[in-house]
Amino acid sequence: MSSNTAPDALPNDTATPAREAARPGLDFIRARIREDNASGRFGGQVHTRFPPEPNGYLHLGHAKSICLNFGVAREFSGLCNLRFDDTNPVKEESEYVESIREDVRWLGGEWQNREFYASDYFEKLYQYAEQLIRMGKAYVDDLTADEIREYRGTLTQAGRESPYRNRSVEENLDLFRRMRAGEFPDGARVLRAKIDMASPNLVMRDPTLYRIRHAEHHRTGNAWCIYPMYDYTHCLSDSLEGITHSLCTLEFVNNRELYDWVLNALGLYHPQQIEFARLNLTYTVLSKRKLIQLVREGHVTGWDDPRMPTLSGLRRRGVPPEALREFCARVGLARVNSTVEYSMLEFCIREYLNAHAPRVMAVLDPIKVVIENYPEHQVEEFEMPYHPEDASHGSRKAPFSRELYIERDDFRLEPPKKFHRLSPGAEVRLRYAYFITCREAVLDEAGNVLELRCVYDPQSRGGQSPDGRKVKGTIHWVSAAHAIPAEVRLYDQLFAVENPNAVPEGKTFLDYLNPDSLRVVQGLLEPALAESKPGDRVQFERLGYFCKDKDSTPGRPVFNRTATLRDTWAKLEKKGA
RNA sequence: UGGGAUGUAGCCAAGUGGUAAGGCAACGGGUUUUGGCUCCGUCAUUCGAAGGUUCGAACCCUUCCAUCCCAGCCA
User: Fold this and answer.
1) DSSP per residue over A201-240, as a string?
2) Residue A396 bears catalytic tag
3) Residue A277 CA to B13 C1' — how many Å?
């Protein structure tokens, strides 16, 4: 069994000629980069960055950005930096830095030694701020936060200039230095850019550049008590790192004007910011605020709960990084806000796992089968391929004996039309083993099926039809005496509605949690699974794809359901009902 | 009511003046020792709407409509 835990390099699965042929047209970002390369705008260089704030775990939305930034760099023979945007000490923690590193690496992002932190630039950023002050383009403002809001004006009304706006350079410099020196309490003053209080773009109405925060920073400790704001930090960080294309999401379109303003004011190297639409998925929430709430309030077991859309959750669920990359490639890139259907992700997961996951047998809702004409103490071993279409996966042996377990759902006392499985008098194939015919169902007083009495056809060894007779149904099974008990966690959507973000007045997204998002069952596995390791991904034949969980103990394996198989019978039956 | 961004099928998404790619979903069928995979077929006379320019418009022009973003000392 392969452990299939090692991710391939990022672009290998998106750059095959066949794929490219199937995907005509570059997305608008790659098209622009190609134009820039053609015109020599950045000397033909491509240098991107993935800039997460270490205040939470990475999720599917970040996957899109990671695939884009690292993918673009790779495709254009450029580089992509990993940069932690850590300018707000009260929200950021080292725990998140660790998880982000792990997740980016898992997804296939390679940043070599280019791991940067906005906090690395604090001193430079400070010097640039003094420079802006000396140029008369920044000033220290004593207004309170509330006053600044009032002075800002509204969407339709221009703002008013702060009474402190025209302090002298000397006074500003002195005040800013004293801010840095810790002479003032939190909120007492801020440094603002002097731009235009009447700008129709609110971002440009003298944006705050620095605020006072007497707080310990996860990297700089207590070295600073003033911290730069995002808009000021991001463009300078990009510039300092020689980024060519600064890719971000659509909500930053308004901020681009300020991005450009800062760099122009300082006369620095100027990367190009380009915005794209963020990813939304049906039946899930992808906002940090909501994800953190799910974790903190205990609606899930943690950031890596397999129902979480976090990369660590998806990984634990058994989703391969290759599937995520394929998903991001299929979703495409545009400037329209969009919500992708979960079925698209599910398709990518199944597509990869179908090709790569070894097949094994497991019974999750057992019903005992006794084969009356099979010798009492006989045990046979059947050789079974791990993959029906790909012999390179090899095979294993599975024991067969008189007493077996099959899936309760594979038997019906009164079979509906087109039911190809077991029922009284019906014959079915036990996968890779024998044909059996059900003679009798033993029931309890309540009418529950306790056990099935069957007979087998010795001529059908291996599941072959001895005389060419057709047996439509093939079901999976495990040998009762040899099966390994296991805990199996059946996961479903975390939310019961398509869009948990849009809920009626008075409700919150938490009111739409799916009460059946996790069902734990005790299953029985074929013995070959004894050798599996946490992280191994397999297909339980006819049931779905499963991944061995880290909660497994030597005597007690735990498997998470990654995805079910498509089930056209369930669909058919539903229609009939 | 200011500014910005965006409207192509149920969901993504190509298309950039020459007569609507592709994928997901859905539906019908073939195949099948997984009711899986796979294969074949169906699925936009029309591109947010209305006018206009043109031999010709999803693409150009005008007006309108809808959705999203911005009033953090968050990112």
Assistant:
1) SGGGSS-EEEEE----BTTTBTS-SEEE-HHHHHHHHHHH
2) no
3) 13
Nucleotides of B under 7 A from a protein CB: 1-8, 10-16, 21-27, 33-38, 67-75
pLDDT, greater one: A15 or A254: A254
CA atoms within 13 A on the CB side of A414: 2
> Can you read off the two tokens belonging to residue A147?
């006053």
- In angstroms, the CA A51 to CA A382 distance is 53
Interface predicted TM-score (ipTM) over 0.85: yes
Give the CA-to-C1' distance from A459 to B54 in angstroms. Answer: 78
**Coil vs helix vs strand at A497:** coil
Burial A56-89 (b: 16+ CB within 10 A, else e): bbbbbbbbbbbbbbbbbbbbbebbbbbbbbbbbb
| Angle A155-A160-A163 from CA coordinates, rounded to 5° | 150
- What is residue A329's DSSP assignment? H
**Is A332 within 7 A of strand B by CB distance?**
yes
The Å distance, CA of A26 to C1' of B56, is: 28
Residue A157 approaches strand B within 7 Å at CB: no
CB-CB contact of A176 with A211 (8 Å):
no
d(CA A418, CA A422): 12
pLDDT band at A575 (very low <50, low <70, confident <90, very high): confident
A350 is catalytic: no
Which helix (H) or strand (E) covers residue A190, if one does? strand A190-193
Q: Using the CA of A142, which nucleotide's C1' is the nearest one?
A: B73
Scored b (16 or more CB within 10 A) or e, A211-239 reads bbbeeebbbbeeebbbbbbbbbbbbbbbb
Catalytic residue among A114, A278, A439, A461: A278
Nucleotide nearest to A431 (CA to C1'): B33
The answer to whether A341 and A26 are in contact (CB under 8 A) is no
pLDDT at A24: 52
> Model pTM?
0.94
The closest of A115, A195, A202, A210 to A161, measured between CA atoms, is: A195
| Closest C-alpha to A206, from A184, A190, A182, A185 | A190
* pLDDT band with cut points at 50, 70 and 90 for residue A505: confident
- CB contact at 8 A, A423 and A411: yes
In the residue annotation, A275 being an active-site residue is answered as: no
> Is A133's pLDDT higher than 60?
yes
Q: Strand A474-475 and strand A380-385: pairing?
A: unpaired
Say how far A25 CA is from B14 C1', in Å: 7
Rg over alpha carbons for chain A, rounded to the nearest Å, is: 30
Which of residues 49 to 68 on A have a Cβ less than 7 angstroms from any strand B atom?
53
List beta partners, residue A523: A486
| Nearest nucleotide to A51, CA against C1' atoms | B75
| A26 Cβ contacts chain B strand, under 7 Å | yes
Whether any strand B atom is under 7 angstroms from the Cβ of A21: the reply reads no
Task: Give the active site residue among A288, A290, A439, A453.
Answer: A288
